[in-house]
Amino acid sequence: MNTIFKMIGSAVCHQMAERSFILQGQQLPVCARCTGIYSGIIFSMVFFFIFKRLHGNKPYTTKGMLLGALAFIPISIDGFFSYLGFWESTQLLRVVTGALAGASLPGFFLLGANFTVGAENNKPIFQSFVEQLLVVGITLLFGVMLWMNIGSYFATSVIVVLGIVCFWSDLIYLIMKNLSGNGKLPFWLLSFCASFFIILTIGVLRK
User: Fold this and answer.
1) What is the Cα–Cα distance from 105 to 180, expressed in whole angstroms?
2) How far apart are CA 138 and CA 135, in angstroms?
3) Is this structure's pTM higher than 0.70?
C-alpha cells in the first residue's frame, strides 16, 4: 500500500521528506501543506455527501463568502514569502494554511458548477455559517493532531489519497457542468472515473 500511496501522492506533490509528516515511522504520501489541503477537501466533500449538498447552488452569505475568501490568504502569504526566502515556514504553518484553503475550496467548486444565472438557486451548500466553521475547524484540528504526531499512517494516507481524488473530481465536475449547459449526464460518476485515470497516469509517469 505504501507504494500506491506514494505513487498517487507524487501526482500532486514534491514529497520532500523535510517538509512532510512522519507517522509511525513512515512519511506521509504528500507534504505537510498538501496534507492540510487534501484532508480539508475530503472532509468538506464527506460533509456535502452526508448532508446531500453536492448539488448546492445557493450563493454563500456575506460572512460565509468572507470566510471562504480569507481562507486562501494565509497559504498565499506563507507559500509566497517562504519561497522567496523571507522566512522558513514551519510544519504547523504549512498544515494549518493548507487546511484552511482545502476545507474552503470544494464549496466554491460546487457553487461554480451548479449555479445557474437567472434561475432560483435555492439549494444551499452550507445551511449556516456554523456549518462552514465546523468543517474548517475539524480540518484544523486534524492538522494540529498530525503536527503533534497523533494519528495513524494508514488512515491519514487514505484520507489524503481520497482528498486528491476529490480535488480532481471537483475540478472535472466544474468543467463538465459548465461545458455541458443543461445536459443530463452522470457528472459525478464521470468526474471520479476521469480523476482516477489522470492521477494514476501522472503518478506512473512521475515514478
Assistant:
1) 22
2) 5
3) yes
